[in-house]
Amino acid sequence: MVAYIPNPLYNPMMKKPDTPLSIMFRLSARTALVGGAIYVTVDQGIWSSSTQDGAKALTTFRENLIPASNELIKQVRGNYSFHRPEAWQRSDGLDCC
């Protein structure tokens, strides 16, 4: 029985071998993304053992990200009309969405 050992330089989606330069580029791009995410979270105090820093990070998240995402949702809903069948409406008459 022969074990199959995949070639690390072969990407089956591209149907051609990857060059060492493309592998190095992808690895450096991924490293930069992860490093940036770690830097931002450390800068915001998320990894801190202090509860005050964590509370400050949560307050910043609530004040900045949640209203921005709500505004984006309102803009997206304004561009499309959603028709919901009567069977999807709540029985108490309240609009859930």
Number of strands: 2
Shape: flat
The main sheet comes to:
2 strands, antiparallel
Would you tell me the structural class of the helices and strands? mainly alpha
Sequence of secondary-structure elements: EEHH
As a whole number of angstroms, the C-alpha radius of gyration is: 24 Å
Beta-strand residue percentage = under 5%
* Alpha plus pi helix count: 2
Strands of the biggest beta sheet: in what spatial order?
Answer: 1-2
Low-confidence stretches: none
Output mean pLDDT. Answer: 77
Share of residues in helices: 55-70%
The CA-CA distance between the termini, in Å, is: 58 Å
What does this structure look like?
- The chain is mainly alpha-helical.
- It has a domain of 63 residues.
- It is 56% helix and 4% strand.
- The protein has two helices and two strands, in the order E-E-H-H.
- Strands 1-2 form a two-stranded antiparallel ribbon.
- Strand 1 and strand 2 form a beta hairpin.
- The protein is flat, with a radius of gyration of 24 Å.
